[in-house]
Design brief:
Growth Hormone, Chain: A, mainly alpha, 436 residues
């Protein structure tokens, strides 16, 4: 039975996975608290939009630029050690900055350096954890685990900012930073007691009898995605959605203020309802798991997500209450769409390729966000704040429904790249034992 799934040492999968997951969840909470406190510290002390923009870029760009190069390393290295070193790096960098806050005046470049180190370590850690999940969790439970992950993210969106604000008022910066350093150390503890399985050697290595080089691994990741038409189309769809939807988050405060005539309290209400929607959507996916075909679950959620955005682009100024409802729809759909896609990738991508594939697709999709932001701002200034919401919502709704008509996308869970890979050499032959 699925509940008896274990990794050679006989430990039930739930005990192993959720013990490790709990440590990582606590570390994420600490990271979100520090992220809020650091950004607010720079806001108060500098009042510079340029400083905040640089801080955002320092935190985002390492994942976008380095992601494709990190993936092959994650697939080559021991994933448990990768997570251990990543968590330890975050803890060390954060505690060093805390010490600097305690004894001297901290320069902006030191904060930028911390954000950069955290972003690089986070890219290694996130890729290793995501690629390891499919080896720790039975395939029939991957959607539910993704739902739990999405619910966690939604919960952090709700509590991190107000809790971070309370801590900022109550504690000095070095103590807030120390909280994050401690939570990162706590995340290390389960990794000291539980093994994380490694993927089997790739089929090509088994056939050749030699380990592949780094550049060969890097190119193999690109070929893997390129030759798998369903995943290629799905990745292009995800990048398009990131291009369209990322600006809506940045433009929402202006939409509420300029179009609906709302206040900062209305912005907070809208964001809180969105966060509640994310939690409810993640909870539903965690309990339900989605339809038998995960791609159907994801595409229908994408269509519903698009409808929620489109509503905001069409509402008159006196219907802010309905806009808040659309935030709930948007938030509810997001974890179901993302969680289902994550489960598809974890169950369909070959385990020894997951580090490369996940970071490659994540980098490609993530690169679309700043491009979308750069284009959406001027367009919204020229055509009105609702115009981008109409375009983004309408196209997202269309993409979700049209995806149901694309055979290679609909068959992605059964017709994947692994079906076209070289078959491994039987163990008896590999060891030099001739079959009878």
């Amino acid at each position: 039975m699925a509940t008896q799934f274990s990794v050679k040492d006989g430990i039930p999968w739930k005990r192993r996975f959720f013990t490790i997951w709990s440590g990582q969840a606590l570390s994420l909470l600490g990271s979100n608290l520090v992220g809020f406190a650091v950004i607010w510290y720079m806001t108060v002390t500098t009042g510079s939009a340029t400083v905040l923009a640089i801080a955002s870029l320092v935190g985002i760009l390492p994942n976008v630029i380095l992601g494709p190069f990190i993936g092959p390393l994650v697939d080559r290295w021991d994933r448990r050690r990768t997570m251990l070193v990543s968590d330890a790096t975050v803890a060390a960098a954060t505690l060093v900055l805390a010490l600097l806050f305690a004894v001297t005046e901290v320069a902006l470049w030191q904060i930028y350096l911390l954000l950069f180190i955290r972003a690089v370590a986070g890219a290694f850690h996130g890729s290793a954890m995501q690629a390891s999940t499919s080896l720790m969790v039975p395939v029939e439970h991957l959607s539910r685990v993704q739902g739990v992950n999405q619910m966690l993210n939604g919960g952090l969106n709700i509590i991190a900012a107000p809790l971070g604000a309370i801590l900022y008022e109550a504690l000095e910066m070095q103590w807030i930073l120390a909280i994050d350093g401690i939570t990162a150390l706590v995340a290390i503890l389960p990794l000291l007691f539980f093994q994380i399985p490694q993927p089997d050697r790739s089929a090509s290595e088994l056939l050749s009898g030699q380990a592949s080089g780094y550049l060969d691994d890097l190119k193999a990741g690109f070929r893997y995605v390129w030759n798998w038409k369903g995943m290629l189309i799905l990745s292009l769809m995800a990048a398009s959605l990131n291009f369209l939807l990322s600006p809506t988050s940045a433009l929402t405060p202006l939409l509420i203020k300029d179009h609906f005539g709302g206040s900062v309290l209305d912005v907070g209400t809208y964001n809180s309802v969105f966060g509640v929607g994310v939690v409810v959507g993640g909870l539903l996916l965690g309990v339900w798991g989605g339809f038998r075909r995960k791609i159907v679950t994801s595409l229908l959620a994408v269509a519903l997500l698009g409808a929620g955005i489109l509503i905001n682009g069409l509402l008159p100024a006196n219907m802010f209450t309905l806009a808040v409802f659309s935030a709930a729809v948007f938030g509810f759909s997001l974890p179901i769409a993302n969680g289902s896609i994550g489960a598809i990738m974890q169950s369909s991508v070959a385990p020894d390729m997951q580090g490369r594939v996940f970071t490659l697709l994540g980098s490609f999709s993530g690169a679309m966000a700043p491009i979308g932001l750069a284009i959406a701002g001027p367009i919204s200034d020229l055509t009105g704040i609702q115009a981008w919401f109409r375009v983004a919502g309408g196209f997202t709704l269309f993409m979700g429904l049209f995806g149901l008509l694309i055979p290679v996308v609909m068959n992605i869970e059964t017709n994947n790249a692994a079906n076209n890979q070289p078959q491994p050499v039987p163990a008896a032959v590999e060891e030099g034992i001739q079959p009878e």
